[in-house]
Write a structure and sequence with these properties.
The protein is mainly β. It has one domain. 0% of the residues lie in helices and 29% in strands. The strands form 2 sheets. Strands 1-4-5-6 form a 4-stranded antiparallel sheet, with no helix packed on it. A two-stranded antiparallel ribbon has the order 2-3.
């Protein structure tokens, strides 16, 4: 006696043999050093740092950060002439990165040593804006605290590879 079954089995799947891979990159922001790029307040021939204003927080709450105003620029002040500022290293928080790259590909084998591969790749798949570093130079006026660059937008590429 034989038993027949209805429905599909795994061999009938049109998506069989496709492979999906990806890379997820999640990074904290790189901290920055505030310093004067064009002004030598200390008259020492080296870069000068600003002073930290007591009671002011350098970081802004996440909801207040924008590319035009990433950190609290009022937390810094000019030191007195011929004085070094007291701002330390890595005091300015930088924005982080969130990047998800995906790849979908399939290889079709025609003979023992002949095949063709189709590939679709997407970089920054969800098009997350990855901001550049904010300007850490107090002597550049309105550009102090502004972010003027961003990482790569979403990019998609398709490829075909023939092996023989």
């Amino acid at each position: 006696m034989t038993k027949e079954t209805s429905g599909w089995n795994g061999d009938d799947l049109p998506l069989r043999g496709w492979e999906l891979s990806g890379v997820i990159t999640l990074q904290d922001g790189t901290p920055l050093d505030p310093f004067y790029i064009a002004t030598d307040i200390a008259n020492a021939g080296t870069v000068s740092r600003p002073n930290i204003v007591p009671g002011q927080s350098i970081s802004l709450p996440a909801g207040q950060r924008t590319p035009d105003h990433w950190f609290n620029t009022a937390a810094f002040s000019d030191p007195a002439p011929f004085q070094f500022g007291n701002a330390g290293r890595d005091t300015i928080p930088g924005p982080g990165n969130e990047v998800i790259d995906l790849s979908l590909h399939k290889r079709f084998i025609f003979a023992e040593a002949k095949s063709i591969e189709f590939r679709a790749e997407s970089f920054n798949t969800f098009n997350h804006p990855n901001l550049g570093i904010p300007g850490p130079y107090p002597d550049l006026g309105p550009f102090f605290g502004q972010i003027l660059s961003a990482g790569q937008p979403r990019r998609i590429q398709f490829a075909t590879r023939i092996e023989f």
